[in-house]
Amino acid sequence: MKLIPAVGVEAEGAVLIRAGTGKIKAARDPRLTQVPARLSKPAPAQGWPWNLQLADWIDGHMAESPKFLRPVTAADADVGHAIVFDAPLTLDCGKTLKPFTVAYMTYGALNAHRSNTVLVCHALTGDQFVASDHPVTGKPGWWDTMVGPGKPIDTDRFFVICANVVGGCMGTTGPAEICASTGRPYGLDFPLVTIRDMVRAQAMLLDALGIEKVMSVIGGSMGGMLVLQWAASFPGRVVSAVPIACAARHSAQNIAFHEVGRQAIMADPDWKGGTYQLHGTQPSKGLAVARMAAHITYLSEAALQRKFGRSLQDREQISFGFGPDFQIESYLHHQGVTFVDRFDANSYLYITRAMDYFDLAAEQGGTLAEAFRGSKTRFLIISFTSDWLFPTAENKHVAHALNATAATVSFVEIATDRGHDAFLLDEPELFATVRGFLNSVAASVGA
Amino acid sequence: MSLRPDLAAIAEMIPQSSRVLDVGCGDGALLEHLAATKGVDGRGIELVQQNVNACVARGLPVMQGDADTDLGEYPSAAFDVAILSQTIQMARSPRDVLDHLLRIGRRTVISLPNFGHWRVRLSLLAHGRMPRTQALGYEWYDTPNIHLCTIADFVALANETEATIERALALDEKGRTRPMRAEAWGPNLLADGAIFLLRGK
Questions:
Q1: Distance separating alpha carbons of residues A132 and A79, to the nearest angstrom
Q2: What three-state secondary structure class fits A54?
Q3: What's residue A305's pLDDT?
Q4: Considering only alpha carbons, which residue of chain B is nearest residue A412?
């Protein structure tokens, strides 16, 4: 048993390898962490920051790619806290992960009764940096509008935990990490993980931190799936749950979009059957295209039209060529190239697959309501009118299933034209709803 | 904060510790009152965002949605009482809403404004234009009250659904109540509104 300074509790089978602002380098194979020049930040942009030609930019950067480049630069970055578990993580696919690491961040302080924990679950490409600057991009936390002192998830009152999911690439064990038995990166030898596996790992993290019950589990998109899975898998540990812009299963359309992204990655010759780390390459083009396609699904038609319309990018007229004539093209290119800086291509394959496999009702013989039977958890389900990736109907479907089991559930549909991404944006009604809900839950548990 | 008199009259009809669905629950004042005073396990349905947020902040479970479209999702006899307060006249299909309420709740409480009040009748007779009253202060073209009815109209609809009217209260303009006979002509002329306690067939 080792002490975990993060909250000052002991836990079975958990070894703290780092807390605070240290590095997790030591945990990795030194051969793979001797990165002479990590994939650097995008070249200084001229004009619009996304005024970049995708292919040129990637080619320019590939030239300086080091051997054994770890595609994600977290090796050099602060990944917050990390715990290495010696106990195996038993996965839905039948395999086990052992040992495995969970990297996480905390904000605020645990109260004396340990009743004020809010577990934030991140989305597909998110990570534990929910309310602090991202160590790779330097950008503010992905939900710093929602989480922080005085914010709806108030870190002055609540103890906020956010952990990188299993299969991720910001310090938690994933395909880019070194497999202990082979000494090489997992690559495609990494076992397929599910949303339920991710939740199991998070539950082990909470065990290690000595937290039995969480006041609220909250997250959007894939984070919302994790929230639902938490409520289904550990009903006794979840006082309240806030799944935002999600569904109890991935639709055919969602799977289709994910498959386009995966095929783009795997079609990139630099992917090399998933072993690109050993070849010193990175399927940046494929990953960027995957991100571009996915990014379209995060926005609404109205938002795209409002933001970009048919505006041309740094030119007076169309060029009669295939350069980025339109601002929307330039914007998507920017989304693509900045993404490859901070995300691992294999991780993208694994996590999208986990989302595709998610189907809470299937676990219960096809009846979603069964997943929540007898649940004492208080639910707040939130959707956005213009979200076509996880439309209101899908969210409402979950709410009705909960109603059918007489669970305590609220459903709120927020009017916005910003599409799926709205959950990450400045949406006053979203903030007001979450704030009001958490306050009432906090009052009921004395937090 | 004291409850509006008509809501207090509804609250008085709700049994202790029952399960209640309040359709068009507004800011949740009635549900909160019922939870506090009668240990009621209440649920709300509300369309307006600010009202939904107010309910959530009060810790009340509320579904943002529309009585016209969402009631079909609720299982039969899921609630001891279903409440529809001052809302039926806004439904696109009041008959369907009533059928659902009678199905979902073992009992149904409905309150409604009375378009048969003598002032309304006189206003139409005297001016020849759609009446505007204190309770119904809209022009005909922008009113959300698209299916106004009189007490007699509602009683006829209740009979058509074969529901039993177990109690009927007449409301005056201040929301004060007095028992009435549902079929009597007097309240239809003199009451500003009515509250009915129904039981489905």
A1: 11
A2: helix
A3: 95
A4: B64
What is the number of CB-based contacts under 8 A between chain A and chain B?
62
pLDDT at A59: 46
Pairing of strands B193-199, B164-171: antiparallel
Using an 8 Å Cβ cutoff, are A15 and A84 in contact?
Answer: yes
Tens of pLDDT along A93-119?
Answer: 999 999 999 999 999 999 999 999 999
CA distance A53 to B76: 60
A414: exposed, middle or buried (Cβ count in 10 Å: 0-12, 13-18, 19+)? buried
pLDDT at residue A56, rounded to an integer: 52
Catalytic, A221? Answer: yes
Q: Are B46 and B52 in contact (CB under 8 A)?
A: yes
| CATH 3.40.50.150 is right for the domain spanning B5-199 | yes
SS3 state at A352:
helix
A441 contact residues in B (CB cutoff 8 A): 59
Other beta carbons within 10 angstroms of residue A379's beta carbon come to: 25
Give the whole-angstrom CA distance, residue A331 versus residue A49: 9
- Residue A228 CA neighbour count, 13 Å, CB half: 34
CA distance A65 to chain B (A): 51
A37-77 pLDDT, tens digit per residue, is 233 333 333 444 344 454 454 444 443 333 222 334 444 45
Evaluate whether A389 touches A298 at the Cβ level (below 8 Å).
yes
Instruction: Reply yes or no on whether the pLDDT at A25 is more than 80.
Output: no
Strands A100-107 and A159-163: antiparallel
Q: Tokens 């007097």 map to which residue?
A: B186
Q: pTM of the full predicted structure?
A: 0.86
Query: pLDDT tens digits, residue range B123-175?
Result: 999 999 998 876 667 888 999 999 999 999 999 999 999 999 999 999 998 88
Domain ranges of chain B: 5-199
Looking at CA atoms only, how far is residue B24 from chain A in angstroms? 14
Q: Report the pLDDT averaged over residues A370-382.
A: 94
Residues 39 through 58 of chain B touching chain A, CB cutoff 8 Å: 43, 49, 52-58
In the chain, the amino acid numbered B63 is M
Cis amide bond preceding A99, omega within 30: yes
- Percent of chain A topping pLDDT 90: 77
Q: Is A341 annotated as catalytic?
A: no
Q: Are the beta carbons of A173 and A166 closer than 8 angstroms? A: yes
**Residue in the structure block whose two tokens are 């106004």:** B148
Distance from CA of B73 to the nearest CA of A (A): 7
Cβ atoms of residues A142 and A136 within 8 Å:
no
